[in-house]
Amino acid sequence: MIGGNLTIGDELSADRKKNINKAEIGPERLKAYIKILKTNGFLSRLKGNKLVISQAEINQYLKNHLSLIDRLTDAEIEFQLDRIHFNLKVKLLKSSTPTVVSTAAKLTGCTFDLNRRVIDFEIVEPQDVISNEVVAFLIAGIIVRIIQSLMDTKIELGKVLENREFVDILCNRIGFDLNKSPYLASIFASKVEGIAVFDFVKINRIEVLPGELVIYPDLTMIS
């Protein structure tokens, strides 16, 4: 709760036991739900129907969670046009001095709707297997930050990374099937005003631009 007002996080915590079928949602119920999103949710932070997350915000978030990623001692990311550049310090051997690694990844696909939540990347400057894995978990952190920004609720990255079956690393390709994460699945099942939030939160596309990530949510069902 902030300043006496309920946040989305408060609504999620208070409303988990309610269960309303989407087909049963009337206009007034949906209107109340949208009001919450406009007051404290991602609709209140949209700029021209898009959500913008700065490079500085992502860097600070990742630095706060470096200890969750094995062998990583430092990380700095830079958003460039259509790619994410990584400047890393990685212990290639657990007992070794950290090695400076410079690499980059490109977003190649994004499907985020009621049925599928899949995001794909390609490492365009591939390094060793260990560094590629570190990059994959850093990207997982970026994805979690996006979801957290959409819902204005706390998501514990440590719990996300406890079960890494949702991450598929194949050579220079990294795929994320978010529905395979048990912890994220519980987030996707969260409710506001008794309504399953992610029945209505969809992403049309994500753009990587110089200095920022731009997320375009699908607003057709809640506008």
Describe this structure in words.
By secondary structure, the chain is of the alpha+beta class. It has one domain. The protein contains 6 helices and 11 strands. The protein has a 6-stranded antiparallel β-sheet. The protein has a 3-stranded antiparallel β-sheet with strand order 1-11-10. The chain starts with 7 loop residues before the first helix and ends in a 5-residue tail after the last strand. The relative contact order is 0.19. The N terminus is likely disordered.
Map the helices and strands.
Blueprint: H1 8-15, H2 27-39, E1 51-54, H3 55-63, E2 72-80, E3 83-90, E4 99-112, E5 117-123, H4 129-151, H5 157-162, E6 167-170, E7 173-177, H6 182-188, E8 191-192, E9 195-196, E10 202-209, E11 212-218
Antiparallel strand pairs: 1-11, 2-3, 3-4, 4-5, 5-7, 6-7, 8-9, 10-11
